[in-house]
Design a protein that fits this description.
By secondary structure, this protein is an alpha+beta fold. α1 packs antiparallel against α2. Helix content is 28%, strand content 43%. A five-stranded mixed beta sheet has the order 4-1-3-2-5, with helices on one face. Its EC number is 3.6.1.7. The active site is at residues 19, 37. Belongs to the acylphosphatase family. It catalyses: an acyl phosphate + H2O = a carboxylate + phosphate + H(+).
Length: 89
């Protein structure tokens, strides 16, 4: 069953290769959506795909790549958008 989640990641998450790591994880898992830095210093992502595949990407978002320090992650299930690709914005 496909799901879509909206994710906000807090902490030292910008300038450490987080978006590239998220993109790599999403593409490896076959997950669509996007990732972007927000002006408030958080990282925002939308992930859409099979639940197990989305969960694999969420694992990365909860820890981040080397150099990141994640202090909080908010995940909210939202309606599907039938996206087919993943983008860094």
């Amino acid at each position: 069953m496909s799901i879509r989640v909206h994710v906000l990641v807090r902490g030292a998450v910008q300038g450490v290769g987080f978006r590239a790591a998220a993109e790599h994880a999403a593409r490896d898992a076959g997950v669509a959506g996007f990732v972007r830095n927000r002006t408030d210093g958080t990282l925002e992502a939308a992930l859409e795909g099979e639940r197990a595949d989305v969960d694999r990407v969420l694992e990365l978002l909860r820890t981040g790549p080397d150099g990141a320090h994640v202090t909080g992650v908010e995940v909210e299930q939202v309606p599907l958008r039938d996206e087919r690709s993943f983008a860094v914005r």
